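Exam revision sheet. Question 4 asks you to relate a sequence to its structure. Input first:
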Amino acid sequence: MMRADQRWLEPRALDYGMPRPALPGRTETLLDMPSSVHPLGINAPEAPPKPFRWFPSFRLLTAILLCMCYASVHMMNSNMGMAIVCMVNSTEYDDDNATLESNPEAASRVNWNPDEQGYIFSAFNAGILCMLVTGFLADKFNAKIMIIVSVFLASIANIAIPLMAELNVWFSITARFIVGFADALIQPAVNSLVTRWFPASERSYALGLATGGRQIGTLLIVPTSGALCSQTLFFGGWPAIFYVSAATGIFFVVIYMFIGADKPSKQNCISDAELRFITHSNREEDFGTKRKEREVPWIPILKSVPVWAGIISVVCHEFPLMTLIMFLPSYLHDVHRYDPTQNGILSALPTLSLWIAKIISSYVNTWMQEKTSMSPNTICKLLNAIGSIGLGVFLFLTTLLDSSHAWLAVVFLCFSMFWAGFHTPGCQYALVAVAPAFSGAITGLTFFFVAISGIINPMITKIIVQTGSNFEWSVVFNISTVVALIPVVIFTIWGSAEPEPWAKGTPKSSTAKPYSNPVPPLAIEYFEKKEEKPKEIQTIA
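Answer key, structure tokens:
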């Protein structure tokens, strides 16, 4: 008795006067495959690919590369805060910007007055404001190129600072603006790249691992800057801080040029199984058009309540973090009287807590999506609320302590930063979830407002803190506490981690394309080699 595939194949062979050939075993096996029994016009079903492991994988490698990117860039961003202590002559200055040399082997100190030092730090924030423009570029152009260009620009700017600092302060101000502009390119490019490389269930973990590079950069540059400042053998002292920071950026650029990729399909070394897994997982986010031809839907974005809830929540999350990152050493010195050595070590502990929390909370988010019946949207809101409440509560508790409980203040600050890490799978994840195809534009819009808050925050703090008393710092922390608690209401009610209707693409079909001829390809190839009736054989198609 003939099998089904033999019954429909046999007459077509006999129609041309050719008996069914004796096919070799391998070909016979291929003809027995399910795809050979589907008649014309019926698609062969394609089973969804199995989940591809996280370790080892190119997804994990991509997240690690992005972590390295953030670490190198943040070293170049934050090194000025440590270097300016060593490079500026704090005892005297003149309007001619002359330099004083106390040690022949040491690099010359520059004479920047307090206003000029303020311009140095403000220039970086001014560069970040460009994120409003750079955000949508990440959705249209190659994110890999944007990352390489941004890190390279930051590296060149850091090399230029010690070379031109003695010439004119405005050269250094311009260099710091370029560093800020480079940072404005990074964040949207990374978020846009995450939406292409990672399925939705893995994005919070990828973001936690990637953005944790900022904390790693801080932990690396603080002790390194102190050591480089205190020596004169390597570039005379403080210039080495900028050269070492730039070297990390160039090192990353070289690695990323060869290993990084804008999207999985452009990575030559990725396995077919992992590529199919990523493509299938993100198929509903495909708009079917090239990124260059895709217009950013600004009107729906600006009218979207979940988008604005996410923006407000991220700004409220970043505001207290800026307070702690910028002024924690001053607070520990003014209120709790820690000496410089202790201050440097203790100031790094909250940053370390934040990095640990990002990894843990992102893993918890992934675990809850896989092991519980809660929706990703509910999990996102829950973790964000936990982060906001924890950050606000421990900041408030810190204000109740005086110098007699200095060690407890450090513990509370570590806990406040730890809970802040839960915003990564919360409102920060929502930035890439609410409109994956336009995550770069939304990220740029969000961090434009974050940059504005970064300019306002130190201004408010400087106005409040005049003598460095415990009461003044309590007012600063209480303001940050109120700001930190706002997302508990805003994001819980109006936030979302689900794609908006206007942000959904046209899903790619998950079924295989039908054969143009019901005869399997191997059979056609066999018949086409026959010379008896070549024309008729080709009309099978």
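Marking note for examiners. The chain has two domains: 56-283, 294-500.
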